[in-house]
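tokens incoming
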């Protein structure tokens, strides 16, 4: 579903922030992208969306990411931003949910059916006509996920989906992510959330892949994490 082939990137032709990076994410996989600040996680997300262009080749569902394919690429990807205020820009949740599908040319009848199905699936019917400025941070994050699902993407990219959430809303978002059947790439410092939602982890350090393998194996490796400026997830501390 997602493939990086020898991808490198430098901002304004300065020092490279990604170095000859290659990996594949198969359809239906849930993959955590982890690393310390500045490791290159956000750059990877921007390259996937075509917001940046680097060296090498990036494929989404077999289609190369380049200027003349961005419309097709972005129809296959849903991106949940770290700050939901940057994503929920219409007055109500409903208006945000219909904005994208209507702009892709779907009929209002089809779009309304999608909205109702997504809200029912997420148990969020009560949010449909709520004003975005009057709902909680956790509700807004769930609304952002609902907005993406209404687009019916094949893959979902998430940037710090649990940041700044209280424990109740964090658990709600985690449970929702676990139930999504799309291919998922989740960038986060919340390693317990990654452990809960991802089967595989790609550890980025200095713009290179430091490790790629089963989530439990990598996230229980204290020496590996500390060597890359991270700590064990809280749920792993004290375990042997």
């Amino acid at each position: 579903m997602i493939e990086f082939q020898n991808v490198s990137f430098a901002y304004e032709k300065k020092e490279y922030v990604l170095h000859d990076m290659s990996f594949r994410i198969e359809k239906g996989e849930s993959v955590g992208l982890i690393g310390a600040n500045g490791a290159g996680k956000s750059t990877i997300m921007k390259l996937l969306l075509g917001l940046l262009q680097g060296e090498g080749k990036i494929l989404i569902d077999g289609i190369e990411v380049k200027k003349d394919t961005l419309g097709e690429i972005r129809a296959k990807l849903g991106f949940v931003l770290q700050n939901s205020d940057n994503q929920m820009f219409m007055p109500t949740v409903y208006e945000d949910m219909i904005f994208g599908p209507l702009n892709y040319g779907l009929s209002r009848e089809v779009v309304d059916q999608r909205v109702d199905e997504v809200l029912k699936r997420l148990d969020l019917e009560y949010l449909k006509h709520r004003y975005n400025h009057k709902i909680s941070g956790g509700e807004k994050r769930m609304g952002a996920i609902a907005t993406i699902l209404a687009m019916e993407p094949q893959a979902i990219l998430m940037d710090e989906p649990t940041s700044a959430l209280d424990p109740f809303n964090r658990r709600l978002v985690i449970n929702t992510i676990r139930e999504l059947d799309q291919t998922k790439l989740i960038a986060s410092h919340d390693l317990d959330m990654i452990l809960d939602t991802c089967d595989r982890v790609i550890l980025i350090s200095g713009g290179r892949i430091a490790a790629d393998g089963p989530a439990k194996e990598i996230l229980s490796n204290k020496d590996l994490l500390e060597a890359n400026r991270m700590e064990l997830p809280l749920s792993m501390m004290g375990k042997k």
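note: The radius of gyration is 18 Å.
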